[in-house]
Design brief:
Keywords: DNA damage, DNA repair, Hydrolase. It comes from Perspicuibacillus lycopersici. Pfam families: UDG (PF03167). The chain has 176 residues and is of the alpha/beta class. 38% of the residues lie in helices and 12% in strands. It is built from six helices and five strands; from the N terminus they run E-H-H-H-E-H-E-H-E-E-H. The protein has a five-stranded mixed sheet with strand order 2-1-3-5-4, sandwiched between helices. The radius of gyration is 15 Å and the shape is globular. The termini are far apart.
């Protein structure tokens, strides 16, 4: 049976990771990035964002590291192409409200398509975006961690390493 997956959000986060929506496996287990083919947890560890590789069941523990998790659409599907325009429109509004309310240092969109749906911009590069949707919050676009992504693993990892650097720079500026 599919269950809704709770957001893991609080104030003063370094990063909020935003996915498209939960996979069917995540919906089954009730945890973010639970599909064994998803590389999210491995990417966080290998990029140095986490001190070890977390398991999907530990998704709430990311809050202790200053990271939150949410999705632009909450309904689990087999693939992102099953999400309707209406779901994206509603999700975009809710996501903007969450980001304004929690005001993290950085929002990392896990997939270009997620950011395109959120921002309405079609031309999007990887990494830090020149302009953010919400003032004082950096928008960062990283490749989807789905096993379906055909980019080289080293390329994907280099972008997540870039994310770590952006967060470190932003934290250093925030402390001054």
């Amino acid at each position: 049976m599919l269950t809704s997956i709770s957001d893991h959000l609080k104030h003063n986060l370094d990063i909020i990771f935003v996915g498209f929506n939960p996979s069917l496996k995540s919906g089954e287990l009730g945890h973010h990035y639970a599909n064994p083919n998803n590389r999210f947890w491995k990417l966080l560890f290998e990029s140095g964002l986490t001190p070890r590789k977390y398991a999907p069941e530990e998704d709430a523990k990311l809050l202790e590291l200053g990271y939150g998790l949410t999705n632009i659409v909450s309904r689990p599907t087999k693939a992102a192409d099953e999400i309707t325009k209406e779901e994206y429109q509603q999700g975009r509004i809710l996501l903007k409200q969450k980001i304004e309310y929690y005001s993290p240092l950085v929002v990392c969109f896990v997939g270009k398509g997620v950011y395109q749906q959120y921002s309405g911009k079609m031309a999007v590069d990887w990494g830090r975006q020149a302009e953010s949707v919400i003032e004082n919050v950096i928008d960062f676009v990283a490749p989807s961690s789905s096993g379906l992504v055909r980019m080289k693993q080293t390329e994907i990892l280099s972008i997540y390493i870039q994310l770590k650097k952006v967060v470190e720079e932003r934290k250093a500026l925030h402390k001054k």
